Amino acid sequence: MINIILPVDFGDSTDALINGAIKFAKEIGGKLSLIHVAPADIGFAIGDMGFQYFPEVEQNEIKQELQSLNNLEQRILAEDVDCDHLLKQGVAGDIILEYAKEKNAAYMVMGSHGRSGIYDVFVGSLTKELTRRATIPVLVIPIH
């Protein structure tokens, strides 16, 4: 089975990305491995008292994200494409590349909003980073 890593962020473009990844997986007989990387500081807030940690916020957010991953997995399985998923916290680029290595992935599928220039300077681009750092081919699906 050809393993394909599919990072997801549950943004507006997730549906289009999933559709493109399903099509690609069917064309090559691949299995999709979904990964979502939550920020390590998801339960922290800054207020009048400085930094505060709210474990219940982190737990609720992680629970919701895990349910979203489960829903995406079921959607992909319903399209007759094999799928599994992983949710981790930390630095997205590093964790995704590590996951690709663990899965012995042949491909990675990412989305691109077509932004460039000043957007990348201020926000950064995970797709740009992973296409630069990955040792496997990265299929970039344009998302409009």
UniProtKB/TrEMBL annotation:
Residues 3-142 form the UspA domain. InterPro entries: Rossmann-like_a/b/a_fold, Universal_stress_UspA, UspA. Belongs to the universal stress protein A family. This is Nucleotide-binding universal stress protein, UspA family. It comes from Kaistella chaponensis.
